[in-house]
Design goal:
Blueprint: E1 10-12, E2 18-24, E3 33-42, E4 45-54, E5 63-67, E6 73-78, E7 81-85, E8 88-92, E9 105-113, E10 125-126, E11 129-130, E12 169-173, E13 188-190, E14 199-203, E15 213-218, E16 226-231, E17 239-248, E18 257-263, E19 272-278, E20 281-286, E21 291-293, H1 298-302, E22 313-320, E23 325-330, E24 333-334, E25 363-370, E26 376-386
């Protein structure tokens, strides 16, 4: 996400989150650097999208440092290597984004946790040169930056309320920070197998909360896979709870489709655990042996439910690798046919229990995968993953 800091030494609050712009350099000269630090926060967690604009000296690599005033802890990052020691944070360029020409900008992001006040840092330094400048700009009245007290609930002027249940979620994204046409930041767009005419984009006309969601135009046919995905590194893998809101236009078909996939490193050679539908009802599918939950028998299918069209539905799941258990909720109600609890149920989960299964998932992908000619248009919003149930 590319943003350019202004030339004023100021702190400002953005409607999609909290923005601090720190601009500095010698008086009557070009600034040494500027930093646009944009925060989207919820009760005990936050993400920060950071854009660094260089001054007059080009660099072949870059290191940005700052200190947190509170007890913020960085848990993951993208487009930079970010480390933390106490309150000191260091972000370093990667192999593909190290070149920073004079006046050029680079963006990266991070996710973290906090308690109390999530104060915005103000002592940024780029390659050892401070981005703080007490001297006034030559064309404006001097302004002394101050650290704002950021409320524990983000402003909702245009972005709506924060996603529900984020107090216990390590990953929580309502896509309000997305300003481009394609999801960026921690999200990537693509498919592991093959891609065709399916598309993924940021939509500002349909949203569950706020003003943005991600729209997936899913086409029929095996090679039209279309997904947005994110790593679950730092979130956990052995025992996870997930929640997202989904809206779609076409009823689940008779044929096999998937709208969510997670790579399972304990299911050689790293095949997917997939959620989707078959026989017009929700189902799970294990890619390695094509086991389905529930079994595609009349009894099994009757224990599942369809995914309503034309409305937002809350889809929740629990994956417990150690126990080999799986649970699923739609609209906060558990779906009986989408439960693996170790106790066999005839014509429902016997295929799934044919072998030992102890998953360890490493990513989350949302989109569309059709194995026949079935197409659908879907929207995703308010995505959350944590180590306890999040709720709708």
């Amino acid at each position: 996400m590319n943003r350019f800091a202004g030339a004023l030494a100021a702190l400002c609050l953005a409607t999609a989150g909290t923005t601090a712009v720190v601009v500095a350099g010698p008086a009557a000269a070009a600034p040494a650097c500027s930093v646009d630090y944009r925060v989207n926060q919820w009760q005990t967690g936050y993400t920060a999208d950071i854009t660094v604009t260089n001054g007059a000296t080009a660099a072949s690599s870059w290191t940005l440092t700052w200190h947190y005033a509170g007890n913020q802890t960085v848990s993951s990052a993208w487009n930079a290597t970010v480390g933390q020691s106490g309150t000191a944070v260091t972000a370093q360029s990667l192999s593909y984004n190290g070149a920073l020409p004079a006046g050029g900008s680079v963006s990266f992001g991070l996710q973290g946790t906090y308690s109390g006040t999530n104060a915005t840092p103000t002592d940024f330094a780029l390659n050892g040169v401070s981005c703080g400048d007490p001297a006034p700009p030559t064309t404006t009245t001097p302004t002394t930056p101050t650290t704002p007290t950021i409320p524990t609930t983000p402003t909702t002027t245009t972005s709506g309320p924060p996603p529900a249940g984020c107090a216990s979620a390590a990953l929580c994204d309502d896509f309000e920070q997305q300003t481009g046409s394609t999801p960026g930041g921690r999200w990537t767009v693509g498919a592991a197998n093959c891609q065709g005419t399916g598309t993924v984009g940021v939509d500002t006309s349909v949203a569950h909360s706020g003003s943005r969601s991600v729209k997936v135009t899913g086409q029929g046919g095996y090679c039209n896979h279309a997904f947005l995905g994110t790593s679950l590194t730092g979130v956990g893998s052995g025992h996870l709870f997930g929640r997202f809101w989904v809206r779609h236009t076409t009823p689940l078909p008779t044929g096999h489709v998937a709208f969510m996939a997670m790579r399972d490193t304990q299911d050689p050679p790293g095949r997917d655990l997939r959620a989707g539908g078959q026989n017009r009802a929700l189902q799970w599918n294990r890619e390695s042996d094509d086991a389905t939950l529930p079994a595609q028998s009349p009894v099994g299918v009757a224990q599942s439910v369809p995914l309503p069209t034309g409305t937002w539905s809350c889809f929740e799941f629990e994956v417990d690798g150690a126990a080999g258990h799986l649970r699923t909720w739609l609209g906060s109600s558990e779906v009986a046919g989408l439960v693996v609890d170790g106790v066999p149920t005839p014509d429902v989960d016997q295929q799934w229990l044919n072998r030992a299964w102890h998953p360890s998932v490493t990513d989350l992908r949302l989109g569309w995968e059709s194995y026949a000619g079935d197409a659908d248009t879907l929207w995703y919003d308010d995505v959350a993953v944590g180590t306890s149930r999040i709720g709708c």
